[in-house]
């Protein structure tokens, strides 16, 4: 797709991917509502296939290719959830996934891709090496590159989480998501704009990876002043496509400290009894930080994933 | 109710309690199915109100009382999930819950009851002190005692988890649950007997609290040879009512080691992305231990609860 997804695009995307993904539940907790002073509806994408919302966008991007393109294989560079999303999608259409990963990527990430039948191509841990290696695969195999977020098919896929959330939770005053590269936030903002135009879309971002808030204000893709956060899914900068959508349809970005992220993560584990990764806790941390602003409202939050190393918990 | 619950009793129970409890989701995982060599459907009672299936039985017992009985209050002795279940049920009907707890009960358990408006009465940490204190409350307040498991209304309530599981997962060859006092296992066995009589009901029990397997074989209520298990929800012995139902409708009890419980618990956390307490992992540990016996079958497992101290994880 070479345009900002329309409502029809997103609806068709949802139909296309629905048999390949989980319709994840929406959970809530009286104790959390009381503590937060508002009604919070958590969309549990940690319970999604591969343990993250990325399954949606990757699946849509691959399913949207022609049969000929699919047969030549898919490639991407990622050491995170997008790698598994592409491996899953390639497996679903019976083709190969060539996943470029830095040679220092954790075994658990490599195993996740291998389990899904993906082929891992290791490279030096620099962005340049990643891009060169992917380009080589494109040239040699004719594989199609699927960018993890700066891609309208991916954005349309991520939008389907908010589509389901709105259907499951009913009227919402605010919808919140974290922001890394901005694929999920863009999709969420579009879904809200089409289905619930009066709802505000607000993002959470770590103080230790505060690039999106600067880009949001300046209109240019900016880097974070410094990088130091447990929310390792949110280290990426925005792309031109996600920046444009976010500047148009997102109301605000709230930054939160490491302590606020860990406290919010622990609350979700304790009260909702689910495993979420630190990145998932960022928008809830933002809600708790500025809870006066949300008093009495109905808030939807997209919990992005649950891929966390149980041997390295922050509590 | 003064008889073993019939199918109609259980159906009426389900209608009675349904607006007060969560219809919890059933989750599954391709990775777990592949590892186990069968299809496993996990009924997530860790996502139930109060974080445990006990909400079902407690709610039914309290809702089944007359208005006059309800007004005089409810009492029980428990330092576990049943205490919160009774506090929740009392709150639902607008009456008082008098919860007798040993004076060494953890603060987190006391706070759970207080949060729900229950009144805690502390006593010495002996069974005798607990029973004397409860009797005093019955005499003084006219409150009704609700036993945590040896009570047909409670058993009918616990049966509703399996009723939902069968509805959600479809045809099952085996249904598994842990066994402590046997309330859940009794209810599960009755539900299976009425709705899916060809399914086998099999329990898991810790080797370090192996009383039910002895009672199951001898027909008398027996104690465990020794007590040493992380599955602190399964320390209780059976009662006469649960023993009778279990002897009639349960196929088998499988015991598992501490290492097997912890490994199964970790697998659930990692693959299903949910928080379960050690007791919940016991039937899944039993399945993994004897997986040849379950090869290719469709297995339902009731995950009983998610109330675990995140500061004291075994991994």
From TrEMBL, chains A, B:
UniProt-recorded Gene Ontology molecular function terms: ATP binding; D-serine ammonia-lyase activity; L-serine ammonia-lyase activity; magnesium ion binding; pyridoxal phosphate binding; serine racemase activity; threonine racemase activity
Keywords per UniProt: Lyase, Pyridoxal phosphate
Matches recorded under Pfam families: PALP
Domain Tryptophan synthase beta chain-like PALP stretches: 18-305
GO terms, biological process: D-serine biosynthetic process
Domain of life: Bacteria
SUPFAM superfamilies attached to this UniProt entry: Tryptophan synthase beta subunit-like PLP-dependent enzymes
Gene3D superfamilies xref list: 3.40.50.1100
InterPro entries: TrpB-like_PALP, TrpB-like_PALP_sf
Requisite cofactors: pyridoxal 5'-phosphate
CDD domains: Thr-dehyd (cd01562)
Family: Belongs to the serine/threonine dehydratase family.
Name of the protein described by the UniProt record: Pyridoxal-phosphate dependent enzyme
Species in which this protein is naturally found: Emticicia agri
Top-level taxonomy: Bacteria, Pseudomonadati, Bacteroidota, Cytophagia, Cytophagales
């Amino acid at each position: 797709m070479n345009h900002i997804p329309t409502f029809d695009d997103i609806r068709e995307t949802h139909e296309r991917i629905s048999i390949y993904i989980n319709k994840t539940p929406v959970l809530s907790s009286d104790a959390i509502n009381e503590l937060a002073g508002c009604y919070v509806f958590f969309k549990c994408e940690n319970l999604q296939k591969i343990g993250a919302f990325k399954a949606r966008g990757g699946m849509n991007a691959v399913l949207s290719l022609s049969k000929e393109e699919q047969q030549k294989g898919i490639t991407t560079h990622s050491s995170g959830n997008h790698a598994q999303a592409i491996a899953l999608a390639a497996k679903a259409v019976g083709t190969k996934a060539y996943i470029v990963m830095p040679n220092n990527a954790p075994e658990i990430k490599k195993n996740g891709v291998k389990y899904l039948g993906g082929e891992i191509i290791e490279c030096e841990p620099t962005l340049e090496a990643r891009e060169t290696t992917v380009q080589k695969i494109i040239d040699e195999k004719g594989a199609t590159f699927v960018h993890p977020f700066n891609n309208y098919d991916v954005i349309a896929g991520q939008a389907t989480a908010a589509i389901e959330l709105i259907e499951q939770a009913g009227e919402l005053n605010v919808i919140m998501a974290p922001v890394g590269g901005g694929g999920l936030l863009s999709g969420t903002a579009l879904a809200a704009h089409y289905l619930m135009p009066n709802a505000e879309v607000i993002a959470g971002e770590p103080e230790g990876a505060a690039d999106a808030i600067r880009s949001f204000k300046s209109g240019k893709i900016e880097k974070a002043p410094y990088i130091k956060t447990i929310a390792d899914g949110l280290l990426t900068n925005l792309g031109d496509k996600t920046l444009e959508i976010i500047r148009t349809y997102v109301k605000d970005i709230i930054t939160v400290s490491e302590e606020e992220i860990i406290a919010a993560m622990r609350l979700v584990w304790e009260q909702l009894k689910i495993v979420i990764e630190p990145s998932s806790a960022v928008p809830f941390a933002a809600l708790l930080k500025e809870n006066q602003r949300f008093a009495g409202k109905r808030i939807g939050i997209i919990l992005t994933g649950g891929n966390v190393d149980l041997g390295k918990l922050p509590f």
